[in-house]
Amino acid sequence: MALRKKPFEVPLSEPLISGNEWRYVKDCLDTGWVSSVGAYVSRFEEMVAYNAGTRYAVATSNGTSALHISLVVCGIGPEDEVIVPGITFIAPVNAVRYCGASPVFIDCDKDTLCIDTGKIAAFLENECERSADGCIYNKRTGKRVKAIVPVHVFGHPADMDPLLELARNHNMAVIEDATESLGSEYKGRKAGSFGTVGCFSFNGNKIVTAGGGGAVVTGDRELSLRIRHLITQAKRDQLEYDHDAVGYNYRQTNINAAIGVAQLERLEEFIAIKRENAKMYKELLSGIEQVSFDTEKPWARSNCWFYTIRVGAGHRLPLMRHLLSEGVQVRPVWKPMYKLPIYTRFQAYGTENGTEAYESCLNLPCGVGLKKWEIRYVVTRIADYFKGSEKKAAAPER
Ligand SMILES: *Cc1c(COP(=O)(O)O)cnc(C)c1O
Fold first, then answer.
1. Measuring from atom 11 of ligand 1, which residue has the nearest CA?
2. By CB neighbour count within 10 A (0-12 exposed, 13-18 middle, 19+ buried), where does 18 fall?
């Protein structure tokens, strides 16, 4: 039974459900272990920890709750500021606000679209001052800059070494938003393993899905126990309803974890496919002069979750419209956070690369199930656009 009609000839990113998902979900239903406790949750956590190269993992209801609880256990509160990328999906910024803290937006790197560590350094140097306690305070607001949340954008890792050094020198926590980068590596080490904590998402469009879900990973046992406690309503006693904090219900369910386990079994295979498809796109697109395809830094091994192309400013929207009308599902890069009315009142340090990326980049279809002919189709439709674009540009405005 088809549950829904494909709206696009070539969809952006659909999950590939062809492993043990049915079997494991059936197992949950047959045994009655459907909710927030069960063997698949534990197995899911082991597999996430393994793939992040960390000792501990705690499954959560989604990536956003993973980020929120991470900020909570790092002690982020209303008197604090948190460094976040100007170019990101909104979830980590919202999580900062859930804690009552203020985001400070830092520009992205031109090539990777990840937070520019040079600009973090410049912000700390020019806008902040260190106090005797070894912490660093924003001179404008008097607030402590307490944490950095790097996002590994579209799977490509941020430049972590200089970022970690800044965090160490100024007593800042690092909450790694690795939600897009499961299995990616920075200098041979797994994304998610660098920060005080790392966060993952298993939403339907991520490289592997649990239907919905998330995880926090860390090397710190105490921290992992604290997270587990807080996401279980901070219930202290096995028997009595005795709670010692304002907790959350942020747990993963066994059914979702069952899907996640089946998907995680295939992570390496999925990454290999994504990387191969990236190579094919890059080769085919190299024939179109107006398009460049983002690639990885020598120190990075991206899981190639999403593919990004850059086109000259002015082409982004008409090209997107052309591709959508041809059945190719593409999407824009996120609008910079500092341009959203809810966030314009917060400080943005450097916006030129982020704004340029927003105006010139778009994401191409990237599902694991993408066929070779589909990649050729997408590239051919892009080529059509540029063949006709001179004519279009010359046409009078209506
Ligand atoms: C997907 C995503 C999240 C949130 O994950 P959910 O599971 O959808 O809550 C957070 N940050 C980034 C950068 C993401 O891409």
1. 91
2. exposed
